[in-house]
Amino acid sequence: MLDIHVEHDGEVVLIEVSGRVDSMTANQFGEALNQAIDEGNINIVADLSGVEYMSSAGLREIVAALKKVKRASGDLRIAQPSNRVMEVFEMAGLDTILQIFSSAQEAVGSF
Q1: What is the pLDDT of residue 64?
Q2: Per-residue pLDDT tens for 10-45?
Q3: Cα–Cα distances in Å, from 25 out to 5, 39, 72?
Q4: Among 9, 10, 6, 8, which Cα is nearest to 18's?
Q5: pLDDT in tens, 102-111
Q6: N or C: which end of the chain has fewer CB within 10 A?
Q7: Which H helix or E strand runs over 14?
Q8: For domain 2-109, which CATH number applies: 3.30.420.40, 3.30.750.24, 3.30.420.10, 3.20.20.80?
Q9: Angle subtended at Cα 39 by Cα 53 and Cα 79, rounded to the nearest 5 degrees
Q10: Residue ranges of the domains in the chain?
Q11: CB contact set of 79 (below 8 Å; sequence gap of 6+)
Q12: Exposure string (b/e) for 79-102, b if CB count within 10 Å is 16 or more?
């Protein structure tokens, strides 16, 4: 079960995700990211504090969204990944590509 909450904070869209992002739910996560981008939002923060598990399918959605916003001179930043999700980012080498913050406020304020 994946729960996604989208909030607009000025120029930034905050997408709060909780649950498991796996092969069954990654497309739901991707749709939320794409919908925000398609609405013209290019500064996005994904708050992953409630995500206990993320598979490679979830990583693919993040990378696809990152490429889209970068093309429009925006960015996708990550807030509060759990230790387990952070390990997945590190194994995939995404910790060097993504800007990762310890709180959603910090991530939103970084734009």
Answers
A1: 98
A2: 999 999 999 999 999 999 999 999 999 999 999 999
A3: 14, 22, 26
A4: 6
A5: 999 999 999 9
A6: N
A7: strand 12-21
A8: 3.30.750.24
A9: 30
A10: 2-109
A11: 45, 46, 47, 48, 49, 100, 101, 102, 103, 104, 106, 107, 108
A12: bbbeeebbebbeebebbeebebbe
d(CA 55, CA 35): 21
**Which residue do the tokens 């889209």 mark?**
68
Q: Where are the alpha helices (DSSP H) in 2-100?
A: 26-38, 56-71, 83-92
Rounded distance between C-alpha atoms, residue 29 and residue 105, angstroms: 21
